[in-house]
Amino acid sequence: MEIRYLLDTNIASCIIEGNSPAVDRRLVKVAMAQIAISAVTEGELRFGAARLPHATRLHSVIEDFFLRVAILPWDSDAAQQYGQLRATLEREGQPMGNLDTMIGAHALALDVVLVTNDSSFARIKKLKVEDWTKGPRQ
């Protein structure tokens, strides 16, 4: 089974924190083999944990999450997408944060759906996006 979904940091956080029943419901319907995170997201999650050094339970939950989800390296294909994407967004007057741009570029390079509830990703043309926090589509 191949990766179909790349989870953005905010969705990974929802899973780790267990604070979104809609995300949880969607997650049980998708095989874990189809879900991954970018190494960029891993870095963001590790940064968040490092800012809370005494939150040992949180650290444990994050490490458990890393054991269950594929973590994909940010590679040359992603870098190529990033360079083009960042230049396009800036030219259009729609720049994004660099880490979000890197995650969006990674999803483009992999040709997968980015799962996020961050509306800024809508600026990236050709990026397939789903928001699992909204529950089922009507």
What does this 3D model show about the protein?
- By secondary structure, this protein is of the alpha/beta class.
- The protein has one domain (5-134): Rossmann fold, CATH 3.40.50.1010.
- The chain is built from six helices and five strands, in the order βααβααβααββ.
- It has helices at residues 9-17, 21-27, 39-50, 56-68, 76-91, 98-110; strands at residues 5-7, 35-38, 70-72, 113-115, 128-130.
- The protein is globular.
- It starts with a strand and ends in an 8-residue tail after the last strand.
Gross morphology? globular
- Mean pLDDT across every amino acid position: 94
Q: How large is the share of residues in beta strands?
A: 5-15%
Instruction: Please state the second-level CATH architecture.
Output: 3-Layer(aba) Sandwich
Q: How many DSSP helices?
A: 6
Q: Could you name the CATH class? A: Alpha Beta
* Major pleated sheet: 5 strands, parallel
Content-based structural category: alpha/beta
Can you tell me the residue ranges where pLDDT is under 50 for at least 5 consecutive residues?
A: none
How many domains? 1
Order of strands, main sheet, comes to 3-2-1-4-5
Secondary-structure element string: EHHEHHEHHEE
